[in-house]
């Protein structure tokens, strides 16, 4: 995409010159496209639960409320869709907050090992409901990080939650943490459904889901991994994924110490 802008400047009397300025605007254009796409996707995602809430409330008002059984069912749907709306709004705001941050202002020192243990304990009940065993491999010594603890918690939360969500019953989730060469590494690995190779790059995009139906059914917004990637970037780290369809997925996060 090339924009040609005529440029003229007084020339020296006896010298002919041509000045060519090349601006690469592809990055700006790309950002514009990404933003427009995000707004379109967000509008669509937000509209879906609102349409359901409105529709079921209208049906109730039109008389369905008289049928107690039906009314109960519709109110449950309205409640579930409101929850979904709440999660979506939360994730969208969170994402835009992280993206607009230019500096880290909350600095505290905490132990990554302890925070990981607490996060695993938090998910224990949810894992047990699916007979999933969460195994941890953690060092004895603390790993001290001096960044906003909430960001690291959120990275762990989203990765462990996905590992459980996208795994079948009676499977295993492994959470490993170690440090070396001034880096801390977090590995969340599952023996779940896996991610097709062609989707592995795209799962970090906003609203991208391999299986929309499955993600929505389990309360997913398609924003979790894009929040994780943004958080990792803000913290100066990296994230990669290794996965095989039907075998499982491994997410590897490294953070500077
Ligand atoms: P969602 O809210 O849909 O879970 P995410 O951004 O967290 O959104 O993940 C994007 C998509 O990546 C998911 O919809 C799912 O298809 C895929 N995915 C993420 N984590 C895993 C995993 N551990 N195993 C298999 N697929 C995964």
Automatic annotation (TrEMBL):
GO terms for molecular function: ATP binding; phosphoprotein phosphatase activity; phosphorelay sensor kinase activity. Keywords: ATP-binding, Cell membrane, Kinase, Membrane, Nucleotide-binding, Phosphoprotein, Transferase, Transmembrane, Transmembrane helix, Two-component regulatory system. It is found in: Cell membrane. Its main location: membrane. GO terms for biological process: cellular response to phosphate starvation. Residues 41-257 form the Histidine kinase domain. GO terms for cellular component: plasma membrane. This is histidine kinase. It comes from Suicoccus acidiformans.
């Amino acid at each position: 995409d090339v924009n040609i802008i005529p440029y003229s400047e007084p020339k020296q009397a006896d010298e002919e010159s041509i000045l060519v300025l090349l601006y690469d605007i592809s990055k700006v254009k790309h950002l514009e496209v990404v933003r427009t796409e995000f707004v379109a996707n967000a509008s669509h995602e937000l509209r879906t639960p609102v349409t359901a809430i409105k529709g079921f409330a209208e049906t109730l008002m039109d008389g369905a409320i008289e049928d107690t059984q039906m009314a109960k069912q519709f109110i449950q749907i309205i409640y579930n869709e409101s929850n979904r709306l709440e999660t979506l709004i939360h994730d969208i705001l969170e994402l835009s907050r992280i993206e607009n941050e230019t500096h880290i202002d909350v600095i505290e020192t905490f132990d990554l090992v302890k925070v990981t243990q607490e996060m695993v304990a938090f998910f224990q009940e949810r894992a047990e409901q699916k007979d999933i065993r969460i195994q941890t491999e953690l060092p004895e010594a603390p790993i001290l990080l001096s960044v906003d603890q909430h960001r690291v918690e959120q990275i762990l939360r989203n990765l462990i939650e996905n590992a459980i969500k996208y795994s079948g019953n009676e499977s295993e989730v492994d959470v490993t943490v170690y440090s070396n060469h001034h880096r801390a590494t977090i590995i969340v690995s599952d023996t779940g459904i896996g991610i097709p190779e062609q989707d592995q790059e795209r799962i970090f995009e906003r609203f991208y889901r391999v299986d929309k139906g499955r993600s929505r059914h389990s309360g997913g917004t398609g924003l979790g991994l894009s929040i994780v990637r943004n958080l990792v970037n803000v913290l100066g780290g990296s994230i990669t994924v290794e996965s095989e369809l039907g075998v499982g997925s491994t997410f590897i996060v490294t953070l500077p110490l």
